[in-house]
Amino acid sequence: MADSLFDGTVEQPSRWQRFCESHLFHSFKTDRIAQVSLILFTLYVLVALLAPLISPFNPYDPSTIDIMDSELPPVWQDGADGRFLLGTDAQGRDMLSTILYGTRVSLLIGLCAVLLQATLGIVIGLLAGYVGGRIDSFLMRMADIQLSFSTMMVAIIVLAVFQASFGTELYQRLAMLMLILVIGIAEWPQYARTIRASVLAEKRKEYVDAARVMGFGQIRIMFRHILPNTLSPILVISTVQVANAIISEASLSFLGLGMPVTQPSLGSLIASGFEYIFSGVWWITVIPGLVLIALVLVMNLLGDWLRDVLNPKLYKG
């Protein structure tokens, strides 16, 4: 540092120092809701990743399931078994273990579906906004047509037709892949329209003209120069879309078009216990439902915080 004072150079701050001095980090330090939401989401992710290590039982292993243990209540109710903290379901599976594995499945479907829709939407939005003309008109009309159909309606039709055409057994083996594809493809216009609007504003700026003068190709200009300057709204959309994808998976599972009972997700757990809820066996549906509500709420709160922080109109410096 002393040498830099004598030779007239200024020591550049590291990336970590710049991040700690940024508006994003300062806003996070002062927002308790964002802190709690991030902690809870991190806990969800850790629980999902470590489910095989921390779950008391393996719900995928039939040898650990005894039908005589079915419909046991949680430990705070009479008639409970100390081995099952949150009780058991109608098949005798430990509810805590199935919720841990179900959270893993729901998060995996939500994240992969959002990754697919973001990839499609970013590529289509970049192409439409940068090239313009007839390509822009054609791609945006496709997006308008796609938006005219609800995600659930498209998913129900596609999954029902697939299940009727190829059989329930094949569908159950490919259920996770089918859910990711259907939810991902159905939601790409959200990204495409947002990226297109940002590209239309960015491509007229001087750094894009400078890149063209230097002889860079259109692909490099779009992905190396324009795309990094349009990522802020993408982060906000992705946070909310993960929650929407998880809700879509849960809704489809509730309708019998999601994950099979043998591969529990939060949605399939809620669906499997719904017929017992009025017979007093409420925990099979209520506890996974509360876990799902908390996960979606955390994702939405994080999305709201990111939207406020990354919106320059709300930043007063």
Automatic annotation (TrEMBL):
InterPro entries the record matches: BP-dependent_transpt_permease, MetI-like, MetI-like_sf, OppC_N
Primary site of residence: membrane
Domain ABC transmembrane type-1: 103-303
Xref: PROSITE patterns: ABC_TM1 (PS50928)
Record keywords: Cell membrane, Membrane, Transmembrane, Transmembrane helix, Transport
UniProt superkingdom: Bacteria
The protein's name: ABC transporter permease
